[in-house]
# Entry
Amino acid sequence: MTITNILLMALVIGIAIFVVYYYIKKKKEEKVEETINVDDKTYTLDKMKEFVKKRLDEITKVNLYDIGLSEEELKRKNKKYELKKALKGCTYGDVNDKKYVKELIFDLLAKEYGVTETNISKAIPFDIPSLLTAQDKFDILIYAYKKEFGYEALTEMIKKYDLALQISTSLNNNLETAYIRHNKGFEFIRENNIDMAIKEFQYALPIIEKIKKHETAYTLNNLGICYMFKQQYNEAVSILKKALFVSKSYYANLTIQVHLMHACRLNGDIDECIKYQELLLNTTGEILHKDPIIIRKININLAINSFALKRDIEANYYLQSVLDYCKNTSSEYRANKLKSELNHEYKMPIELLQCTSNYKTNMSFEPWCITFSHE
# Structure
């Protein structure tokens, strides 16, 4: 081998060592964060969920040894393995793992994605309370209670209803007492404590009937839902027909007709079921295109009913028109479950499959409760 060849080989090896060193150094100094292009949709829930899923995927898949980290940095970056363990633990309900993942997501959104107290309102309208959905309000309330009471949050929330009841009773405000008992019944429905919910509605009903008879439609609607959950459909139909008879509210009429449609079908009266379905379609009007809650509740229920009647094309039509409205609501499980039934190639997200709330997962109908918001 000549001296020239030896020098050339030495030069090649030297260049190779330099390139590898430069690559490793660049990888070590490279920032994980990527620039977020801000537009009108940046701070929507869908965009933020997409970002978080992508970042968690990146964190759990990166090979720490490939980027040439020192032993000290490897220990610091070992959070990759902590995250993998925590994500697995979340599926089994481990409280500490859930806390770890929540804190990480908070950091990702605040430090990398740039979420602030101002732009978060584009996802959830905290600054315009009238635009908050019932689910938003409940989530905000339960979050506030969890900060103070931890695992006893829901119990304490119900106790607050009891305190409000004591105050209204001491003031001899029978109507306000009935409103509180009615709303407390709704919370029991959410907890799947149907018998307690029935007791609350039955207490409120005669009081409201004496003072504001047309408002008994709201309590009767919720009472009908309870009997539907108990699969006592004949009783449910009877109660809901009374509700429709006394109702003077367009909104209440829609909710009652939705439940009558399902209750009649589940009671074996298909002709009556179809009658109420057609009534819904004929009476929705322009408001249906403006109110997102009405859009969601009407269409998801029409989709469920059509699917139960084996009208798959019709069911798919209603479902497709409402899918976007169902995200992050109590309708999300049902919408995805129905989608998987109509399209066998579609797989439901794992986080939805873990939902155990009968209020959210019951597939025979989507409950549409009415609450009072009087001061």
Observations:
- Residues 3-29 form the longest helix (27 residues).
- The radius of gyration is 28 Å.
- The CA atoms of residues 144 and 153 lie 8 Å apart.
